[in-house]
Write a structure and sequence with these properties.
25 strands, 4 domains, mainly beta, Immunoglobulin-like, four-stranded mixed β-sheet
């Protein structure tokens, strides 16, 4: 038989093959002679499906009521059968994060269109609309692309998507500095400043709301002893602010004077000796009228 043709055909990756119809030009009259083509497939994917691409088709035998009256050596078409890439719609799930002063986001892609067993992975860029703490924030995903051993068998329906995720407050600790005070009969007020631990992205206390104030047993304290300095008043929408107290120590003036006198004795030559050697009272220090620095060699 001569004048054989096989019609073009197409199917989607992962679907059943649908070869084109075989036709003969030199069948006599109403003779019934038929043939069925097969797609000349090649490589398969990880899931065992024929990979997307173009293929030839071959008719190798004839059939029909009058087939015995004809001889047929087989026929192979040009590459006119196409297995098209399977359409793939990506869906994304956002990942919650702690506040980091950036809009950077993490999102994970998936798709129900991927045939089980195929090796396909997603790459993309994801970002929050702004950096601030909130729940259910919109995450915009762009630049979606596929990779992996079987990625060429799929065609993305779009390269953008949206999802949601939370930005949770970052932990920030505000710690009061300790303070010391010589008994003066006047009540203590305020504090000695604070330190911060937990700022991210180069931020400073300038981003905090409220105003730093102090409470605790130190406020109004007069007598010698130790008291609590409790920082308070600072607020933030992006930080979970916690406060750690400091300690106020009020000491007797006599104790301080002894320390001062001891320091003087170790570095100075006392030319006017205090009334009572080895003691240090306010009167003694007042009696120390002339001090010569030993290091000056005078």
């Amino acid at each position: 038989m001569t004048g054989t043709a096989i019609a073009s055909g197409t199917s989607s990756y992962g679907s059943a093959l649908n070869p084109g119809a075989v036709s003969f030009w030199n069948v006599v009259g109403t003779d019934v002679v038929t043939s069925t083509a097969a797609v000349d497939t090649g490589a398969t994917s990880t899931s065992g499906n024929y990979v997307a691409g173009t293929y030839t088709q071959t008719a190798s035998a004839i059939d029909g009521a009058d087939a015995s009256n004809y001889s047929f050596g087989g026929f192979t078409s040009a590459a006119n059968y196409t297995i098209t890439a399977r359409s793939l719609t990506a869906a994304y799930t956002g990942t919650n994060k702690f506040y980091d002063a950036t809009t950077a986001a993490t999102a994970t892609g998936s798709s129900n269109d991927i045939i089980a067993g195929d090796a396909v992975t997603f790459s993309q860029t994801a970002a929050f609309a702004d950096k601030n703490v909130a729940t259910g924030k919109t995450v915009s995903v762009s630049g979606i692309a596929l990779s992996g051993a079987d990625a060429a068998n799929y065609s993305l329906t779009g390269t953008t998507a949206t999802t949601t995720a939370d930005i949770n407050p970052a932990a920030l600790t505000v710690t009061a500095k300790d303070d010391h005070k010589i008994y003066s009969g006047v009540g203590y007020s305020g504090g000695n400043g604070v330190t911060y631990d937990g700022f991210v992205g180069g931020e400073t206390s300038a981003v905090l709301g409220g105003a730093l104030t102090y409470g605790g047993t130190s406020q109004g304290a007069v007598h010698t002893g130790t008291y609590g300095i409790d920082p308070q008043g600072l607020t933030s929408g992006n930080y979970d602010v916690s406060f750690v107290g400091g300690v106020l120590t009020i000491v007797r003036s006599q104790t301080i004077l002894i320390d001062i006198y001891a320091a003087l004795m170790s570095t100075k030559e006392i030319l006017s000796i205090p009334p009572t050697a080895g003691s240090a009272t306010l009167a003694n220090l007042a009696a120390t009228t002339l001090i010569k620095d030993k290091t000056e060699g005078k």
